[in-house]
Amino acid sequence: MAVERCDSYERDAVAEAVRKCVGHLGGMANFVKPGQSVLLKPNLLRGAPPEKAVVTHPEVVRAVALLAGEAGGKVSLGDSPSIQQLAATLPKSGYAGFMREMEIKAQPFEDVREVATGLEGPLRNIEVGTPPLDADVLINLPKLKTHAQMYMTLAVKNLFGCIAGKRKLGWHLKAGRNYEYFGRMLLQVAKAVSPALTVVDGVLAMEGNGPNSGAPREIGVIVAGTDCVAVDAVICAMLSIDPNVLYTHRAAREQGWGVTALDEIELKGVALDEVRVDDFAPARKNDLILPLPAFAKRLLRRLFTSRPHVDAQACRLCGECMRVCPVEAISMDKRVKIDYDKCIRCFCCQETCPHGAIGVKEGLLARMLG
Questions:
Q1: DSSP bridge partners of 112
Q2: Taking the complete model, does pTM exceed 0.70, yes or no?
Q3: What is the sign, positive or negative, of the torsion defined by CA atoms of 148, 153, 157, 161?
Q4: DSSP assignment letter at 81
């Protein structure tokens, strides 16, 4: 694991910070051999200007692509955005220029292949996009952001983008309000694609109402590592967050995959105390985890858990939230209506709203106890 300061997206500053981080891990030649195919997997939730902190900044992706090319790799880039096609997302996110300049091919994740996880039950097989599976080297490039459902989207969560298109909605439907189950599924995706290297864009992060409509927050770091779980744990520690709030972290500890204990992680570069943040605004808590009977949980869940809330003034009635809702809990006439009895709190609507019109509203009890 390595952490380096990077206070701006000025090209030379990003290139130096990325080179230092990867250098602490043995250099890019430790991961990429001449002639190997290298797939870069950034966070491209939707086409958004880089200053909005929705996507992995193009300068970070460019810097990693440059190192992979110098090592002799044949570099391509892929993702499965939630809203637009990949081809439409790239120019809006500032990627088209450097990809054209560096002759980096875009690979949408359309074809899939089934991967056996070794688990029993519904998680025993997962369909993953073929480009991440077929690449000789997969490099994971997350954006440091909050996430309404999973609390944070970091190294493990970013790899959910390896699930092709509408199959993402199918997993939300299977998981329902069981966030523990969804966290276990995300871990299985990470295990299936097993990135060789993760480089996190934490220069300008997103706090609060992430992953689409939160507030940009300057953190000023690049983080790199070979273990997705350890990367997430270190970033949580840097933000003064207990990593055990992450459903993916709990799943990793349960399954014994990745390093979950901070004292077992070797950290190079700057010390965590030098970049620690004590006032990072988290996503609102959305689940109720108490040892109660099912009927009591159902009652308290309505009063305690957060839910998506539509800002009528910001809503443009585009219908995107209706399209992505896996349980068809959203209807629209002269305004958007959410059936909270059907809503499974997957927050797909909040995540994909292109106008930032859907936020997260805490339950009554949560506000009272607040």
A1: 129
A2: yes
A3: positive
A4: -
Closest C-alpha among 327, 311, 308, 318 to residue 354: 318
Give the DSSP letter of residue 55: S
End-to-end Cα separation, the chain, in angstroms: 36
Tens digit of pLDDT for each residue in 122-168?
A: 678 888 999 999 999 999 999 999 998 899 999 999 999 999 877 78
Architecture label for domain 294-369: 2-Layer Sandwich (3.30)
* pLDDT tens, residue by residue, 195-228: 999 999 999 999 998 999 999 999 999 999 999 9
Second CATH level (architecture) for the domain 2-275: 3-Layer(aba) Sandwich (3.40)
Task: Please choose, from the candidates 25, 107, 106, 102, the residue with its C-alpha nearest in 3D space to the C-alpha of residue 70.
Answer: 102
Find where tokens 């250099």 sit.
27
Residue 176 DSSP class: T
Q: Which two tokens stand for residue 174?
A: 């299977």
The single-letter code of the amino acid at 269 is G
Both structure tokens of 272: 């965590």
3-state secondary structure of 76: strand
Cα 106 versus chain centre, distance: 19
89/95 Cα distance (integer angstroms): 9
Lowest mean pLDDT, pick from 45-49, 71-75, 97-101, 229-233: 45-49
Reading the block at residue 271, the tokens are 């010390």
Bridge partner residues of 359 (DSSP): 309
Alpha-carbon span 160 to 190, nearest angstrom: 8
> What residue type is 284 in one-letter code?
R
Instruction: Round to whole Å and give the CA distance between 68 and 85.
Output: 25
Are 60 and 21 contacting, i.e. CB atoms less than 8 angstroms apart? no
Contact 147, 218 (CB under 8 A): no
